[in-house]
Amino acid sequence: MKNIIIGQFIPGTSFLYKMDPRSKIIALMLLMVSTFILSSVSHILIMLGVVLVILKIGGIPVTRIARGLKPIMILLLFTFTFQIIFIKTGNLVFDTDLTLTYITLPIILLIVIFWYFTKRYTRFKFLYLLITVFGILTLLSLYNPGSIISSSHLEIYQDGLEGAFFIMIRLIIIVTLSTILTLTTKPTDLNLGLEKILKPLGIIRINAEEIAMIISIALRYIPTLLDEANKIMLAQASRGVDFSEGKFKDKIMQIISLLVPMFIISFKRSDDLANAMEARSFVPGKRRTRLHTLSWHNIDTSVIVFCVLVLASVITVRIML
Amino acid sequence: MAIKFEQVNFSYPSFDGTNFSALKDINLEINEFGEFITLIGETGSGKSTLVQHMNALVRPTTGSVTIYGIKIENDTKKKGKVKLNPLRQRVGLVFQFPEYQLFEETVLKDIIFGPKNFGVSNEDAIKRAKEVIKHVGLDEEYLKRSPFNLSGGEKKRVSIAGILAMEPDILVLDEPTSGLDPKGRDDLLKLFTDIHRKLNKTVIIITHDMNTVYKYASRVLVMNDGSLVYDGKPTELFSTNNIENWNLDIPDIISITRQLEERLNIKFNSQPKTIEDLFILVKEVI
Amino acid sequence: MNIIEIKDLSFSYQDEIQALSNVNLSVKKGEWISILGHNGSGKSTLSKLIIGLLKADSGKILVDGVILNEESVHDIRRKIGIVFQNPDNQFVGVTVEDDIAFGMENLCFQQSEIIEKIKEYSKKVDMSDYLKKEPHALSGGQKQRVAIAGILAMKTDIIIFDEATSMLDPKGRASIMEYIKEIKKAGVTVITITHDMKEAVLSDRIVILKEGRVIACGETNDILNDKETLNSSNLELLLPLKLQYLLDEANISNDKVKDILWQLSLNK
Predict the structure, then answer these.
(1) Same domain, A114 and A28
(2) How many domains does chain A have?
(3) Contact with chain B for residue A10, Cβ under 8 A
(4) Among A172, A235, B202, C24, which one is least packed by beta carbons within 10 Å?
(5) Closest CA relative to residue C162, chosen from C44, C79, C50
(6) Contact B252 C195 (CB under 8 A)
């Protein structure tokens, strides 16, 4: 467990890396707001184009972004289906009967079983799932011999299709934008940037510096804790805890045997750490100077100006149309 | 033969994406009975990784480890036929920090946790706990106490008792004496020699203390940069010149004997093992 | 001149037996003093009291003539640095340079000064090639060296090493002892807390603690000659010293051998 990397930062040299984290965070927010204001498919496609251009100039491979999209695939699929099924305005573009019969039912079961046992052999699991689902739907609509079990009706309208497409693009843009930020900014820089941006919150008694200190200590200790969790797991495995097996009752015991040592060690650690910090003259809430400071360059100004312009034009378009 | 390493390599991906070799071509045999082995080497030389292979906690990247007739290879687990758990009962491994394993409300519950995982009945496990708590030099009264309110040395003893209660054939301990004061260290080492002699179990200890190696071990293994560079008797190890290359110390008794020989310009006719031996030698010379 | 003055200091943890009772101790400016004792003798408690991480039940501590209390504690901590036992639990920064900077940031050093001092002191502990490294890429000994650099950069008058070597391997241990010698030479007052007599003999003076009481305090030479106290201290005697005692008991005296054994005891 020596390969723990926090965040997704990958080193690079493009303009995105030369920017101040503050301007990157602000730019991200401006573009996100713009994306939310847009309301038509053609406009959001232009926005997607802009994002793709940023990726291109920034030298970020699209495959990296695709990896970032993976965890939200289910969400995307869900919203897509939801939109398609429930919006019933506009022109009818697709209409079919879905009929389940005593002959198609076992065939579908066979397909599902086949999919279940073969899915591990393909690298494109999600695509495979989509093809399977699509195959079943096609079967249901076209092939209906034998006596009928149930029958339903699938209608897809233009608005539903457009809405689904629109929401999907919007989500993709937002995830892509935030992935760009995390790919090109070290967690520590991101933390520092956030601290500076949140500083005005001091007025409402939110101490940005303290929050930043907590995040920075978390960043420092997460690898240590993961390493420790691994060792505890090995230590308990040596006492016969088989993490891959066991009944429900055993499972609970297994988890307790991991959690208790984790907590005990962490308490001791935070106690030690607090002592070490205090001994080195740390006083919570007191002013400190910083080794790392941020510096604003021309590129930051131009990027912000660009993003403000994007937002302004988006608002104009929205008002005009 | 209890444990046999054949051409074992172990590597994992490190920070920069390259593979780090923790073990390189290890060949090693451990007997079931009567060995008192110390495993030494610098931090990061692969000692801990080596012992984690001995009870199948990790599988070799290439090569094989045979534990009581069961061959562990890289794909062993995927095949799903081999049960690794029973091996962990036969080769008991105590980790460096007792905090890694203590978690129950009482010492008793903690000690019986291991045996019960291996299917020992509650009553038998309790019987064993009462037995082993004495073995590790603690009073039966300790069984009722919480493991978290004990001193560092006591925690260590309880964690060892938890492994002993599994009745392993081989006992492996990862730096059991680190962080203890001299008295705590000597008490524990006496305990290990007792286990070794009375119960005739093979004991394997990872240590940085050369005095321990010289005084107790019948066999010493030296790891250096992932390779097993020495496997033999301690007396011979400390008379070779490789000690410095492997960044190892010399036992105090040897260094003081050498210093005396050098400064008095004499040669003792034997290498003393204890300070009393040396006293007799010095007495003869003066 | 005494830089630390401890008078009748007593302390006990909640409902436990006395961790320290009536400790009197003075530390001279620029000296290296060892506090020697086995686990549970109260030696680490003493160090925590000196920098005000614990509050004494009775007695007082003066640092550089100032009484330690709630008002003065922050000023006193500016004068004392401490390296703790566990290398992992005192590494605050995300990288080596961040950790060295931590104390200076707290003391509001200018950024340019911080950068300069990181360069200077990382070099002193031979860690200048590791400035951007994260702690999990370092060995225990390297982490302790980073801790030392961070404290040296704060320019404290006193540095306490609270069993700073006990979790390290022999190589790490030896290197830390070398840095301590250098720090002492540079005029910093050094207090090492240890159970290892081999380490203690390197210092100018030794204080032996047993069950919360000072049972001996004096020049290293005198302490090594005090056979009775050493035997009653439960500490592990140095082998050359043990041999000398055996020779004494057998009434064998040889000045040359005695001299050599003495030199060896002092690690010379």
Answers:
(1) no
(2) 3
(3) no
(4) C24
(5) C44
(6) no
